[in-house]
Amino acid sequence: MNNFEYFLGSKLIFNNDLKEGLKEARESVKADKALLITDPGLAKLPNFKALRQAMEEIGFAFEEYLDVRPLPKDYTIDDCAKAFKDSGADCIIAFGGGSALDTAKGAAIIRTNGGQMRDYFGVNKVKRAPYPVIGIPTTAGSGAEVSRVISVTDSQKNVKDQVMDRACCPAVALYVPSVLKGSPRSVTTTAGIDALGHAVESYLNIKGSPVTQAVSLMGAGMIYKNILSFVEDTGNEDAAANMQIGSTLGIMGAGFTGNIDGHCVARSVGGSGEINHGAAVAVALPYCMEFNLNAATDKLANLAKEFGLAKDGMSQMELAQQAVLGVQKLRDDLGLCGNYKDLGMKLDNLDAMIERSVYFSQNGSDAYASPGNPDFEDFKKMYMDGYNGRVISF
Predict the structure, then answer these.
(1) Which end of the chain is more exposed for a tag (fewer CB within 10 A), N or C?
(2) Which residues contact 220 (CB under 8 A, 6 or more apart)?
């Protein structure tokens, strides 16, 4: 067994009652005033109104920042950091998906450490512990509420980059299934398949430990078995809870191991912000699994068992193939696009995108993590398969 360490910097609170959960979270961080942040769309919805009411009922003073942007760029996080400082709040509450959570995490780091978000791109560049963040995810997807990674678009290079540091972990992750009710299908599908990608890619990752493999495998199964029910009825609180926790387990793995080929492709394809990250993952994930079929046969077979796809008499390779086909079918059942061409990807900068994927696979959190160790030509095949939507069959 290889040496490993594992650290989860966030306290997890699961509570079916939003008000009671907020009480626990406030007590945990010992805060008097919060900056409550979300995006303009969520700010208009009933679940945000419920959050405001709960904050008022427990006497938790707050100001609001309602300008979170999707796929946040470095300068949009800088703007939130200024608002956080100006508010005088001693904690920040992120209500939303990965964009809100990552914006809050970045703003808290800048508030304490100064500078700009761009100053922290890379690994272990945060010197001082940030102000506490309470993450309340309204999607089951990013896992950003427990992740030591901040995903942010580099506005100069026009590509998704990362800040990776223990200090990025929110102080508290608060899970309340009811806040997912009413989430639009466009969000639940793409966020859910992204969460599945985290879990699957972390489990296949050669840098994994017994801890990350255990949580990733279980998380992948919870997501696979519940995502369709949740997408069809976001008011199904059992399915919502399983999606929330499954997503968290996946990032508890991926936050330490990094991802592999699927996310290396998706981060490059979606770097401009014109293609949704989850939609990009949905196309890439089956090809990533297929590419690693020989290098990670036993792990893919275990995923098939966890998905409930195993049948008596199947060999390990047959099981592994079922895992690949199962994810491809799930994507189609969710109504997600199966090719990059229809999502708007252009081929005029293909080589540059491939080079970025190669770079991601050799640097940062995803460095040398893939069982198959893809090179330029391997990534080119994944891109072209994704662009054309080649249907995998065995």
Answers:
(1) N
(2) 196, 199, 200, 203, 246, 250, 303, 306, 307
Q: Which of 102, 97, 39, 101 is CA-nearest to residue 68?
A: 39
Class of domain 185-388: mainly alpha
* Domain residue ranges in the chain: 11-180, 185-388
Contacts 24+ apart (CB under 8 A), 66-69: 66/37, 66/38, 66/39, 66/40, 67/39, 67/40, 68/37, 68/38, 68/39, 68/40, 68/96, 68/99, 68/100, 68/103, 69/39, 69/99, 69/103
CB 136, CB 174: distance < 8 Å:
yes
Beta bridge partners of 165: none
DSSP state of 15: -
Global model pTM greater than 0.85? yes
Per-residue pLDDT of the chain (394 residues), as tens digits, is: 778 888 888 999 999 999 999 999 999 999 999 999 999 999 999 999 999 999 999 999 999 999 999 889 999 999 999 999 999 999 999 999 889 999 999 999 999 999 999 999 998 999 999 999 999 999 887 788 998 889 898 888 877 788 989 899 999 999 999 999 988 999 999 999 999 999 999 999 999 999 999 999 999 999 999 999 999 999 999 999 999 999 999 999 998 898 999 999 998 997 656 789 899 999 999 999 999 999 999 999 999 999 999 999 999 999 999 999 999 999 999 999 999 999 999 999 899 999 999 999 999 888 999 999 999 999 999 999 999 999 999 9
Paired with 37 in beta bridges are 65, 94
Q: How far apart are CA 29 and CA 137, in angstroms?
A: 18
Q: Using CA atoms, how far apart are residues 266 and 371, in angstroms rounded to an integer?
A: 18
Terminal-to-terminal C-alpha distance of the chain:
33
Cα–Cα distance for residue pair 368/295, rounded to 1 Å? 14
The reply to whether 11-180 and 185-388 are identical in fold is no
Inter-residue contact 68 to 103 (CB < 8 Å): yes
Asked if 182 and 267 count as a contact pair (C-beta separation under 8 A), the reply is: no
Q: Which fold has domain 11-180?
A: Rossmann fold (3.40.50)
b/e per residue, 240-250, with b = 16+ CB within 10 A?
bbbbbbbbbbb
